[in-house]
């Protein structure tokens, strides 16, 4: 069995794997890119190996974009709450109209007989 894979010693690879496992046990909420950056230095000049040319900057996004998205989420939730209230009011009105219609139908049947 050789003691190398490519240009790296197998011992180095095992050490790096142990370091990654340790980091994931301590902080399981980290994303893959954050784990890579903590173990192998920030990946600022090269493309991250996810294919399609996605860079770490694309994955992280800026804080400005995050705050804008949070604000948009808040406004959408407010709009959704208003629409749900309107829907409930419309349903109640529909039930009321249906009851009135049923009462009118009953009265018509009484007059017919």
TrEMBL record:
Keywords: Coiled coil. Residues 66-107 form a coiled coil. The keyword Coiled coil applies. It comes from the Eukaryota. This is Uncharacterized protein. It comes from Solanum commersonii (Commerson's wild potato).
């Amino acid at each position: 069995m050789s003691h190398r894979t490519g240009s790296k010693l197998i011992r180095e690879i095992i050490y790096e794997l142990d370091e990654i496992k340790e980091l994931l046990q301590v902080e399981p909420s980290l994303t893959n890119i954050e784990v890579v950056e903590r173990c192998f230095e920030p990946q600022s000049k090269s493309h991250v190996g996810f294919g399609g040319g996605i860079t770490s900057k694309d994955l992280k996004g800026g804080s400005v974009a995050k705050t804008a998205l949070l604000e948009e989420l808040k406004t959408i939730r407010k709009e959704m709450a208003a629409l749900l209230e309107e829907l409930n009011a419309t349903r109640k009105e529909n039930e009321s109209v249906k009851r009135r219609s049923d009462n009118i139908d009953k009265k018509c049947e009484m007059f017919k007989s």
